Predict the 3D structure of the following.
Amino acid sequence: MMFAAQPWRRATIGMLHIMDQIFAALASTPRRKILAYLSEAELSAGEIAARFDMTKPSLSKHLRILESAGLIISDKRGQFVFYRLQGENLANTLASFMQAVCPVSQGLKKESRALAAKKKADA
């Protein structure tokens, strides 16, 4: 006997797919570093790239993965693309928790705060 597809089952499968994307995004050290850099300041793709020793296509892939997981948002302004953390959501709460226990993130978040203060002072 065939049963009709249950809406709660589709919703559960969809949620599991989203959680898989979030955990896959957070599993990468460069992506966690990007999130730490964006923790206090919005940065252009060029500003993010300046902090990493990787090719632009590699960086673009990391940014795309973070965006598809709902962790960051991109905003194209003229010829530049700026990135910032997605607003308050479960995924960023989890990312913030990981940054709190990740020793690498502390220095990066400090740098992000200093950059945000400098941008505010220059504005």
Remarks:
- The CA atoms of residues 71 and 93 lie 10 Å apart.
- The chain has a mean pLDDT of 82.
- The longest strand covers residues 72-77.
